Amino acid sequence: MKSFGQILQDGRKKKNVTLEEAESSTKIRKKILDALEKSDWEALPPTTFVKGLIKNYGKYLGLDQNELLAFYRREFVEKNEQKTVSVPVDRGRFRLTPQLVTVGTIGLAAIGVGIYLFFQYQSFTGSPLLELTEPKDNTRVTSPEVNLVGRTWYDAILKVNGQEVPLSPGGAFSLSVGLNPGINTLTVTAANRFGKISSQRRTIVVDLSSQKKEEAAAANVSVTIKATPESINLLVEVDGKKEFDGVLVAGSEKIFNGSERIRVVTKNAGSTQVAYAGVEETLGKPSEQAEKVYTKLP
User: Fold this and answer.
1) What's the pTM?
2) What is the Cα–Cα distance from 15 to 60, expressed in whole angstroms?
3) Rounded to 5 degrees, what are φ and ψ at 290?
4) Closest CA to 161 of 202, 132, 206
């Protein structure tokens, strides 16, 4: 019998897509998809988030989501959760009658309607769900980039430091965030259509002192992108492959090196400063989306 991860791998290969292409379509980070295909449970977020990611990835691959969840429960949940002790029940005193079936059906229907109305009421009066699993608050890292992983309501508007970011179907999100050396504050908000907002903050300390300086490989195209004065939502493709897809916080910068071409897409052109071949430019106006391709000089 195939394992959970093997089913996902076979589904992706049958669809003839790479992990990078799956990441671009599902908005689920490549390392999360790779961990799912390898059944690497230690590298995945908590079970609550994993179920949503499995549904989203299974839907994208055209697989039966219920079957995938069943395999997941068999391989992970049932092996890690404490087994309950069954208590013998005296069935001799209980008789299932049509009347009991009718009452039970009506009761379940009433409970279902009550739960639906409760969540509808919450959507009108309460702030949307917002849960962050990565990174933890007051985290110290040695790289100027972290992964932001969590979930919110599927119809919420998610922003990171003021920049709107896309959600996967079901409300899960996983994206890269470029940081400055030193102390960084990430402000994540989720707003519903009635203006109710949930907010969480994460303080991240970037310590680059332990990094060894290495000479950059020879590149025909080298682009430096800086976010100023505001954060930017950025997509960068180097020689046709996605190199970065996430948010650069205000004041941070990243260098991209390629052989032939570098494609830059930003949703806040007025705060996107690009340096290429000794020339610096701002890609456009504030809050404007812009795209530009840089190619090697003749």
Assistant:
1) 0.58
2) 9
3) -145, 155
4) 202
The strand pairing partners of 246, in sequence order, are 176, 234
- Close Cβ partners of 147 (under 8 Å, ≥ 6 residues apart): 29, 31, 134, 135, 174, 175, 176, 177
Task: Quote the CA–CA distance of 6 and 185 in Å, as a whole number.
Answer: 39
Record the tokens describing residue 97, joined without a space.
């009658």
Q: Residue 60 — φ and ψ, nearest 5°?
A: -65, -40
Q: Which residues of the chain have pLDDT under 70?
A: 1, 77-96, 117-125, 211-218
If phi > 0 it is left, if psi is from -120 to 50 it is alpha, else beta; for residue 195 that is left
State pLDDT tens for residues 36-81: 888 887 888 887 778 888 888 888 888 888 888 888 888 776 656 5
Asked if 235 contacts 265 with a C-beta cutoff of 8 angstroms, the reply is yes
Distance CA 27, CA 105 (A): 40
What end-to-end distance do the CA atoms of the chain give, in Å?
Answer: 56
Q: Which long-range contacts (CB under 8 A, 24 or more apart) does 135-138 make?
A: 135/202, 135/204, 136/202, 137/201, 137/202, 137/203, 138/203, 138/205
- Looking at residue 103, what is its pLDDT? 80
Sheet strands side by side (includes 261-266): 130-134, 145-152, 172-178, 241-248, 232-238, 261-266, 290-295
Separation between Cα atoms, residue 23 and residue 117, nearest integer Å: 35
Question: What integer pLDDT is reported at residue 84 of this predicted model?
Answer: 43
